[in-house]
Amino acid sequence: MTVSIGHGDYDAERKILCVSMSAQIGEDDEDCGLPLFLKVEVMGVFKVDDNRFDIKNIEDFAENNAPYILNPYIREHVFALSARCGFRPIIMPLIEVPTRKPKLKASRRAAPAKAKK
Predict the structure, then answer these.
(1) Greatest Cα pair distance in the chain
(2) Where in the chain are the domains?
(3) Is 33 within 8 Å of 62 (Cβ atoms)?
(4) Concatenated DSSP letters of 89-104
(5) Contact between residue 78 and residue 2 where contact means Cβ atoms under 8 Å apart
(6) Three-state secondary structure call for residue 3
(7) Which residue has the higher pLDDT, 85 or 113?
(8) pTM for the full model?
(9) Fewest 10 Å CB contacts: which of 45, 48, 97, 112?
(10) At a CB cut-off of 8 Å and minimum separation 6, what does 62 contact?
(11) What would the pLDDT profile of 91-114 be if each residue is shown by its tens digit?
(12) pLDDT tens-digit map of 34-83
């Protein structure tokens, strides 16, 4: 199975970004074990609010975030198409989303209040 991701340039006029993700399973694919050729491509059209999202990060979003958003859709299509063709359904592996802890700015905390006697 081959999975690939690609994206176009950010369209500043329409404020959209197109990202595509494809999965291809071939006749000689040893992982598949089925006599089929299947190619599924999903295109995501992301509307960008450039007042809230810094456009200098658009490339990073397209390459690192968009695949996590599109992956469940491509997995479902691969599964459903292989099942509807009469084959054992192909289940693409899950992907693990890395956890990032936000960097918090140092803040001043008030000293705890003393209990009255």
Answers:
(1) 82
(2) 2-84
(3) no
(4) PP-PPP-PPPP-PPPP
(5) no
(6) strand
(7) 85
(8) 0.74
(9) 112
(10) 7, 17, 19
(11) 998 887 777 776 666 555 555 556
(12) 677 889 999 999 999 999 999 999 999 999 999 999 999 999 999 999 99
CB 1, CB 34: distance < 8 Å: no
State in Å, rounded, how far the first CA of the chain is from the last one. Answer: 72
pLDDT score at 88 = 87
Site of tokens 């592996």: 93
Q: How far apart are CA 59 and CA 7, in angstroms?
A: 9
Query: Which amino acid, residue 49?
Result: D
CB atoms closer than 10 angstroms to residue 72: 13
Q: Could you tell me which of 94, 92, 76 has the C-alpha nearest to residue 84? A: 76
Nearest to 18 by CA among 47, 50, 41: 47
Residue type at 33?
G
